[in-house]
Fold each of these.
Amino acid sequence: MIRVQREDFDCGREMAALTRGNTRIGGLATFVGLVREVPMTLEHYPGMTERKLAEIEDEARRRWRLEASLIIHRYGRLEPGEQIVLVATAAEHRAAALESCAFLIDWLKTKAPFWKLEETASGPRWVEARASDDEAAARW
Amino acid sequence: MRLLYFAWIRQRIGRHEETVERPPEVTDVDSLIAWLRNRGPGYAEALKDASAVRVAVNQEYVPLKHPVRDGDEVALFPPVTGG
C-alpha cells in the first residue's frame, strides 16, 4: 500500500492496521525517516511519485514473500523531528521483513521523485543526492 | 508536449510547467534540452550541465537519447533526495 500525503501519520496505528487479522505474520519491520536539525520543504512529482513507489513495492514483493507492506511519504514543509517517511513490511519470519524494509528505503531514496529544500542558517539550500545512497541502492 | 520542472530546475526556469509545440529539430531528450537552453537565461542556467539533469518521459526515467514525441509529458529535475 502506498500513501503520499501532507499530514503526519501514527506509526503504532499504521502497524496495528497492517497486521490486524493476519496471524501468519511473525515479523514486522519498520523504518521511520525524521527531519534532522533544520526545517525543510519536500517537493514531489504527483503521479510519478505514486507510480514509482508502487513499482518499488511490487519489486519487494517479487523478491520476498511478504504478508503486508506499507509506504507512507510526506511532502510540504516539515519541522526538525517530524516524520518524513514510514516503510513497514510484514512476513512470516524476521529475515524477509528486515531485508525487504531495508531494500524499500534504499530504493525509495534513489528512485522516488522527491526533493528536499532545507532552511539553513545561510538561507534555503537544495539537498544534494549522495553517492552513498546510490551505493546503498546498488547493493540490492 | 507538456514540460514539467522540479526543484532548482523549476526555480531557475521560473515556472513549474508549460506546454510547447515540438519544433522539428527536437527528436530526443538531448535535442530538447539544447532547444530549451535557447529559450532564455533562466533555461540556460538551469540546463547548462545536462549530467546534473534527470529526465522522465511519461513518468518513466529515460536516458538523454530517448525519443520525445508530440503529446509526451517530459519532466526535467535534479537527482532525487527523498526518504
Amino acid sequence: MEIAAPTHLPQWRGRIYGIIGLIILLALVVVLAVSVGSVNIPFLTTSSILLSKVPLVGANPGWSGALETIILDIRLPRVILAGVVGAALATAGATYQGLFRNPLADPYLIGVAQGAALGAVIGFLLPTTWQGTGFGLIPLLAFAGALFSTAVVYNLARVGKTLPMTTLILAGVALGALLGSIVSYLIISSGEQMHGIIFWLMGSFSLSQWSEVRIVLPYVLVGAAVILLYARPLNIMQLDEEQAQQLGIDVERLKLILLAAATLITAAAVSFVGTIGFVGIITPHAVRLIWGADHRFLLPLSVLSGAIFLILADLLARTVLAPTEIPIGVITALCGAPFFLYLLRRRKKVIF
Amino acid sequence: MIEIEVHNVCLGYGRETVLDGLTFRVRPGEMVGLIGPNGCGKSTIIRALSRVIPPRSGEILIDGKEITKIPRRELACLVGVVPQMPILPSAFTAFEVVLMGRNPHLGLFQYEGPRELDIAWRAMERTGTQSLARRRVGELSGGEIQCLLIARVLAQETKAILLDEPTANLDIGRQVEVLDLIRNLCLQSNLAVLAALHDLNLASQYCHRLILINNGRIHAEGTPWEVITPRNIEEVYGAGGCVYTHPVNGLPTVLLNAGNGKMAKTGGGTGGE
C-alpha cells in the first residue's frame, strides 16, 4: 500500500510507524513464544534455528536435533496457528463492526460460532473416528456448520434484492439462539464427551500441527487480502448506505463480498481451534483507540494486533498452570478485558 | 458539461406514489431550484437522480444515457450530492470525510495519492473549512458539517451537483457565501445544479429557474417571476406571505405576514415590473 506523506495529515505517519512497530513486535513475540515451554530454549538459539530455515540466510547449526524438532515441529506450528487465527478473528471483527456500523459486532454475530459449535458437537457425538487428510471429522463439520448457518441467516434476512443490516443482525441473533440451545441440549446429554466438547468451545491450540496451518492459512490469506482491498469502500460505508451509493459504491455487492470473506476466514479459524471469544470484538476497538477508525489502517493493524494478542494468550494458556492447559478463551477475556478497560479510560474520546 | 433530463417519471416508496408525471431538465451552466412544501418529494427527486431509488416509470437521462444503465462509480463521477442531515462517522476527521469525495475516481487497487489530497485540500480552502481539517466530525456544528459536505462534493469534481437543503443549518452570512460559491461554480465550470431549497427568497435570488412541487406533481416551472407569484404561493403554501420586488435586483421576494390569512397584492416596493 502506497501512501503519500501529506503535510496536513500528521496522523498517517503515526499509523505507518504503528504498522512497522507491530511487525517487529510480532517477530519478537513469535520467537519468545517458541522459546518458552517445558524446555526453555535461549532466545538467541531459537532465533538462529528459525533464521536457518529462512532461504538465503546461512546459520551455523550448533544445536541439537531434538531442539530443532521441539522448535520447528512442535512449537512453531502452534504459534503460527495461534497467530493466523488471531489475525483472522480480529480482521473479521473489524470488518463486521465496520459493515454493521455497530461497535458490539463480533465475528460470531451472524451465527458462525453457533453453527461451528453445532457441527463440532455433532462430530464429537458421532460414533466414528473418520480421518481426512491431515484433519478429523470435527473441524470439517464445524466448518460446514459455520458456513451453513451463515447462509441460512443471509437468506432469511434478504428483502428482495437488498440486505438490510439490522434484519441480518436480528436473524443472526435469533438463529444463533436456536442453534445455541440445541448445542446446550446436546452437551447435557453427551455424557463422557462433555469435557472435550466444552474444552473445544472455549478454544485450544493444544493439538496444532503443520497440517492444520496448511489448511487454515490459505483461507485466511485470501479472505484477509480481499477485505484489505475494500478498506476504502468500507470507510465510505461508515457514512450511510445512501451516501455510499452517491459516492459510487455498489452497496449490496460490497456487503456480499465482505460478509463472504469475513465469514469464510472466521469459519476456517474456528473450525480447528474452537470458538475463541473476545479477540474479534476487542482487538479492533483497541486499535481504534490507539490509531483511529480509518479502515485502511485499522484492518492491517488489526491483523497484526490480533496475531500478537492470540500468540501471547496461547503462551500464557500453556505455561501458567503447566503441564495443565487453560482454555484460551479464558485467557483472552481475563487478560484482554483489563487491558482494554485501561485503554478506554486513558483515552476518553469518540472511537466509533 | 452534462444535462439532466427527466421524462414523465413516477417515483415512490413501497406502494405509495410520491411523485408522478415529472418532466424537466437541468442544463449545463444552469442553476435550478426545487421548491415546495414539506414532504412534497424534493428529497425523493434527488434520490432518484442519484440512483438511490429507481424510477417506477418514465426515464431519467444523465448526459443522454439512461440512469439505471450507468455503473454506480461512473455515475458518481458525473453527479454529486450534498445530502440533508446525513450520518457521518463521528470518529473520522473532517479532512477524511472530504477525501471520501475522491472515491469514485479511484479504482480498487488505488490509494489516495498527493493529487487526491491536494484536490480535497483545495475544496476545503474554497469552502472555508481548512481550519476544521483535523477536527473529528462528531465535534462539529451543523453549519460546519454543511460546509464540509459542500467541500466533499467539490472534491468529487462532478459535472452536475444536486443539493438537498444546502443552507438549512447556516446563518445568513454563510447562506450567501455557500450559494455564491455554488452559483459561481455553476457558471464558471458549466455545471448543472439542482438545489432543493426551503427558503423561497434564496431560491429566487440564486436560481435561473424554479420548479414548484405540490401534491405529487409539478405545480409551476419557470423563472422566479413566473413561479413565485401570489397565486402560486397561496395555492401551494396556503396563506401567510406577500410577494414584493427586491429593491436592489428586482427579483421576487416573499415577506411573511403574521396572523394575516389573506395574501397581500404584489408590488409596492421600488422598481416593480
